[in-house]
Amino acid sequence: MQSDKKINIGKVIGLHGIKGWLKILSFTSPPENIFNYQSLIISNENIEEIFHIENSRKQGKKILIKLDGIDDRTSAESLKQSRIHIFRADLPELSENIYYWEDLLGFNVFNQNNIKLGLVDSFIETGSNDVLIVKDEMKKNILIPFLINKTIKEVDLENKLIIVDWEN
After folding, report:
1. What is the pLDDT of residue 14?
2. CA-CA distance, 81 to 100, in Å (whole number)?
3. Does 2 score more than 80 pLDDT?
4. Homologous superfamily of domain range 6-90
5. Could you please report the per-residue DSSP string of 98-132?
6. H/E element holding 154?
7. Topology of domain 101-164, per CATH?
């Protein structure tokens, strides 16, 4: 996968106190996994800059981070509503048959009869299992449970291809 590709892992949703702490909406699972990254790319219409996490904590349901160089409420204010990214290369390696959703977007999806169902558009986390959302050529969604060795028969990262046991 591209090492310079950026992955969106959160958003700055507010400020906390007067010393530059930021309230974060984390897209990681669990949310406090955002603390695992020492460097974050913070971007909005005015900036895109790499910051290092100086400190972080979970306070109730809130995720709070303190960035190096952001030492007061005024400098933190400019980061409100910013997106938080990391480089794809900073994600941990996964074991076999486990994938980052981001890596599978845009893959061709074929059933076992070699009929193209469409392209991977997105995923839904349902609790019991993830669901693959495939857009067909008519732009309609096909929802396929993402169950390795059941509905998902093969994921070919090199050829950007997923083979499924699914009839349309």
Report:
1. 97
2. 25
3. no
4. RimM (2.40.30.60)
5. ---HHHHTT-EEEETTS-EEEEEEEEEE-SSSEEE
6. strand 152-156
7. SH3 type barrels. (2.30.30)
